[in-house]
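REVIEWER CHECKLIST
Item 1: Sequence provided? yes
Item 2: Single chain? yes
Item 3: Sequence as submitted:
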Amino acid sequence: MKKLLALILAAALALSLVACGGGSGAGDTNTPSTGNGDTPSTDTPNGGGDNSAPSMTKEEMIEQATECTIWDIKNDALDNIVKAQQTYCRKILMISGSADDISSDHITMRVGGIHIDVYIPVEDIANLEKKQSITIVGNTSDKIEEGTFAPGIPQVEYSCEVNPAYLVSDTVEWTGEFRGINGGNDGSYNIKFENSSSLGRVYFADGVEIPDYGVKVTITGKSVNGSLYEATIVDVVE
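Item 4: Structure as written out by the authors:
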């Protein structure tokens, strides 16, 4: 009786093992379907068109970025929009320009015929001034949009986004010949730029030793609407 019972239990165990093994096979090792017959992509999004948290740090973006200016993008878009999109869209770019408009969650870099909405951290936006020269780095949008400048005006206006983005620099360097105090008596001085007859207006930071007239200098500071503020001297060229 005991032997018969043991045989029955052994047979039942064997049947249960066969039943469990029958559901496995080569087809079960596939990646789960997304519901439309396709398997989910393993590509890591790089930010193009995705407005979620940045997938790269500021330093990583700077290492991989292609440098350009907003004028480069504008000129290429006006010349050949298809080529411009291939050159600048879905890329990591380091763009120089100015913060022409400041909104609650982004700044707009603008030059005739194009504007770029740049989503940098709000703490950086808070420290910028309108028309301040800056350099940013970030992921550009999928395409450059084409529209009209304003209702009833046929002029073409191009636009794109950089999101996510970071502020790289909010200062610039000028090199030129020091030309003394500005005639406006507002505490500013003049710099004559190299290879140009143009003069730049400079407001030096407190404590900066003012150079002699005619001395060639390199200075740095915040450029706002064409004037340099809080300027300091980087180098004096003998």
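Item 5: Key structural point noted by reviewer: Helices lie at 2-21, 58-64, 70-79, 81-88, 122-125.
Item 6: Recommendation: ____
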